[in-house]
User: Fold these one by one.
Assistant:
Number 1:
Amino acid sequence: MHLFHRTESENLLPYDGVLLYIPDFIPRVEADQLFLSLLDGIEWKKDEAILYGKHITTKRSVAWYAEKGFSYRYSGTTKTALPWSPLLLELKTKVELASKEKFNSCLLNLYHDGSEGMAWHSDDETSLLPNSTIASVSFGAERIFRYKHKKTEEKVELQLEHGSLLLMKDVIQRHWLHSLPKAMKVKRPRINLTFRQFGLI
């Protein structure tokens, strides 16, 4: 197990992909304001999926924004994007300048407290551009984020801080799973924005 705290601008993975972390991407005062604006200004809804033939509604809330209001399917359900808000466009520009990448959509997650998390998975939907970069911005409660190699099961974890930026690049989704484990001691909400490159827009 590799544990990283405030390492930045170097690859945190030992092989098969690139993972970069910038802890102070957005200054704390600005991050505090953005957190409140996102909490109140985003059209949050419970996520839905079909798993093993059963309709599941998650505890966490989600929202999806993009350049055009298009739809795509995953986990047996259809998602339709909302048009960009001015705040999300401002954040997208910041992320694009820092990452030197372009993004055409953003999936947002709201975890109300540490009882909500995300199981092991890869962001490898066929509608995403192959090996494209995913940029993840975190606001609110700090949470542990874990990676596990699909073959070797080697693990890497880091603490995602308020106002931080995480970049998943290259072949990482092909070789690594990631998860947000539950943390029952965490009582505050966390908002996560993942800027993505869909090939359907």
Number 2:
Amino acid sequence: MKSECVNMIKEHPFKAHPWHGIPYGDKAPEVVTCFIEIVPTDTVKYEVDKATGYLSIDRPQKYSNIIPALYGFIPQTYSAGRVAEITNIALNRTDVEGDNDPVDICVLTEKDITHGDIIVKARPIGGFRLLDHNKADDKLIAVLEGDAIYGAFKDITDIPIQVIDRLKHYFTTYKDLPGDKSPRCILTDIYDVKTAHEIIRRSIEDYDNTFRNVR
């Protein structure tokens, strides 16, 4: 056991960058590894600093709404041309671009998980097509792998409407600031598990096309 630990340290002497150094999982897109940044008890929005890989304070939450699920991103994904193409096709547009971030994901679970900066295995079951300042900002919806309650859900239509409404409210208001005359994030539609899987495949292609030398 000691020799195995020594070998592991030699092969990986530094902490993996959450975006570039953690695999998305060999069962993707059906099951993916997610890096969780914030949880429902957080009153501050944390976000991975892209340069260092450490969590940083993005901003205090301006209002009382909280994220009703674990929230983070899928490592080694990227929202660029291939991801934006799905939004353009769905909306019959040509001007939408990717938001140049890893793909965001919400993970539903009946467990109380009290802090972020963790990795979890999750099964995507659908998603929200969101526009943020005219950029594709998809929010995938997933369930924690093996969860006692949500683990049986196969598609976003299995989720109670009350949970969907809470997620919709959060994502259409969480970036708004006092004095804003119009919402920053627009939800155009909700899609199923098949489309969620396609978003993941395309985001992996976008990542490989952009960061193929990072690996």
Number 3:
Amino acid sequence: MAKVFNFSAGPAMLPSAVLAQAQTELLNWQEQQTSVMEVSHRGKLFMELAAQSVDDLRQLYNIPENYQILFLQGGARGQFAAIPMNLLSENGKALYLTSGYWSATAAKEARLFGEIDEINILEQGHELKVNNLDFSDIAAQYDYVHYCPNETISGVEIFDIPKVGNAILVADMSSNILSREIDISQFGLIYAGAQKNLGPAGITIVIVRDDLIGRARNTTPTIWNYEVQKNADSMINTPPTFAWYLCALVFKHLLSQGGMKAMEKHNQDKAKLLYDYLDQSDFYHNTVAKQNRSLMNVTFTTGHDELNAKFVAEATAAGLHALKGHKVLGGMRASIYNAMPIEGIEALIAFMQRFSSENS
């Protein structure tokens, strides 16, 4: 069978070593002669797995001890609502920095719970770029400031952390979590759907500072209350145990590969290879400013819808899957998360070269 490379924006590819281990253990986990999906989440073995996964993620991301790690459900969209329910005071307001579709969607959801100010930080000229990230002069008036450091649809990534003084900074890192080193202490809360770099769809990571727990409104549903979830070890109901198990395997795998420093270099190398090819091409175009080009989601187009559709169809036939751009933007999108090997980028470039020569 020919090699297939999966460029899906999510659910995305998982490390092959992790899938192989899961396959080996599927019918006999921990010598129990049963699957991890069939054991009690409150049993000794799964509780040990859950605790170890927290320790491994803390080590991997250098998460300070005054932060809690929660494994929740509902995806990032669930957190769009949970965050204002937990952090937005009854008469307070929050600031949302919007740079694309997902940050704007988060702001829209938050308005259901209180007063939200929104500042669009994305400049849309001949290229997409983010310039001003200094909000230290206004941030103090807000209960928190929210932003999305990587927009999967447009391929815009914000590498510098917004300046918000002593205000609480909240980040939706669904599509770039664990892709590079960050200073967790500069954030009050980080959240991420698992289906890009962490594991399969169905589980969500929330990293939240201790002093932000216990602020939830009285009307907050129990399942969205961070204090309740913390006190229950993220198990007030049955968690998605198989998804949690796979996340635990991913954390072990990343640690074995050299951790965040090694992963950041891996991702920078992949992105540079693809962007360098796009920059020298007259056939394909990327419209994101160099300082905001995502390491995770590389968008490009031929400039012609019919040609784009032909590219996607022929790429799929060649074993390069899920390159169709999001319906909001069109064109093509290569999502090159942690699990994508450099060989996948090389195969994509080889195809792009062949396609351009045949269709110029």
Number 4:
Amino acid sequence: MFDRHEGGEEALLVHIDFHNNEEQEDLLEFEALVISAGVTPLQIVTASRKTPHAKYFIGEGKAEELAQLVKETGASVILFNHSLSAGQERNLEKICECRVVDRIGLILDIFAQRARTHEGKLQVELAQLRHLSTRLVRGWTHLERQKGGIGLRGPGETQLETDRRLLRGRIAQILGRLEKVAKQRDQSRRARVRAEIPQLSLVGYTNAGKSSLFNRLTEAKVYAADQLFATLDPTLRRLDVEKIGTLVIADTVGFIRHLPHDLVAAFKATLQETREATLLLHVIDCSDERREENITSVESVLEQIEADKLPILQVMNKIDLLEDFTPRIEKNDECIPIRVWVSAHEGIGIDLLWEAISEILLKSHTRKVLILPPKYAGQWRSYFYNEKMILSESISEDGELRLEITISHSILGKLIKKYPYLTELMIDE
């Protein structure tokens, strides 16, 4: 679609230090992104500036130095740890004679590699097209207006206008497909809400160990690797847990500093699983020196998707990388668990994590004992058994069934409203 220099596997990395800038990007994270994209970094070019250069972002002298480095190293792509304007990318490509990709373009490329499901591919393409639409000015600049023919003569349409029209059409088509996917997700979500099934959603900075923890909790085999954005498509598993009953656990895409707004918008359907969760498990790499910054970044994204008001349990993962550290649960002044220290990779502290999850979820549940005469025993035992609510059961000499159950306050209220006689069958213990 564009007259562009071909991309490659070997790259020069460019990182500029802007003083007193809160939006400063992290160099180590940038290197991890590059490696996750499957690119070999040849050399890192760093510099300091007060403000970006209007034409080249890095300054004219630095741009010429970069062009010389391209010739010496044979690099086929230059990766910037910053967001560049279309004009800056075009000017740099002209002087360096190789492809230039900014931070957003790099993240989009990684997402394109990771997408596996139909929905994930649509979401990535939507984000790419929205990003591309701001850079159409560089395409087809050498072409004249389209030529007319007999019956078609006139001023014609420029290739740029054609590209924009085609992009708008494709974006509208993808939005339509994603809307259908969103409706299907809504139907499943509404069914879970009606059934009062709690949903746990794993959130956290990319590479914090969410997929490893998900596999440990669910005994699933979700792809987990020591790289950024190893998980892109959401995965849900239904579990039957003692004392809680049935619940759903969702593994979601990892967050990152300054996550592009186009990506947040494109992954709206995916992030909906996070926004409507009963409890968020915020997985944190406790061995990372920048963990406090990572926590702030995740909280910022949660605020963007309006999920910052949900109950959160922090899961301090990778304690096996710390010296002499044992798993434990930390509670607040109200004795509610707020933090659990575990190692998903080694399976350390997982029992404590389940204990904390159960304690939080059971705050919305109550334990009841029912003494059921034979005429009601079969009906209610079957119901509570199917809903995984039974904690214990026994039969008296008179043939009455004693059931100890755990049930949410809302479901109990609905049952009593529909079957008032249940209150007479409940006893306090």
